[in-house]
Amino acid sequence: MNYNKKLSDEIFKMYYAEKIGKNSLCIECRKNAIEKHKELTNGPVPIFHVGKNFENNDKKLLLIGRVAYGWKDELNPLWEKTFQENEKHLYDIQTTVENRSKQLFSEGITKYFEFIKNTLTEIYGNIDTAFDNVALTNYVHCNTGSVSDNIPQIVRNYCSNKDLNGFIHKEIEILKPTHILVLTKDWKYLRYAFDKKWNVKAIKHPSSPGRSKIEFKSDILDFLNN
After folding, report:
1. CA of 75: how far to CAs of 26, 81, 109, 127, 183, in Å?
2. Which residue range forms the structural domain that includes residue 142?
3. Which of 55, 58, 142, 188 lies 20 to 30 Å from 41 when distance is taken between CA atoms?
């Protein structure tokens, strides 16, 4: 198993208890998105990955992206089964996402995964050690099907605001990372401040125009070493 099942199980049990995607706030969010002409067709997409050595690492690095793209065909039917039948389907979702994230990371299929794979491999020494020692998640857990940050602000509000669904905050409380690297400097996300007890740094997203791998690596190393 290439992930931390204990922490991942805790997060998925939280999703189930909170009825992610099905609770009243999620329903409001989808309705408001449609009113803004942006239907949320994919998701919710849970946390991408919790490394199997994450919990035992002196520097527990959590990377937070902006929006979790894709996954409709894999996840939407499983979420329906989860809430219509029972929570055992949560572990089908967990396995599906972890396996797909491992593939995306290993093959660097998107620019985001290519940057973090190459950078973390240099920092941790090899690709497997890199994957085993970090956790990956996103501010927003649903998307419009487009691989672009085209969601209305109201959607960010529901997922990222601690006073609403606040799933990202609940994930952090379970993971207890020593270092949280937010992969955006956009105020549309940074407006949702994390608890001051967490060690947080915001940097430009790896897909930002003109972003170099050297610059991205330097940002991460500076954060881990200071």
Report:
1. 16, 10, 19, 26, 24
2. 5-225
3. 188
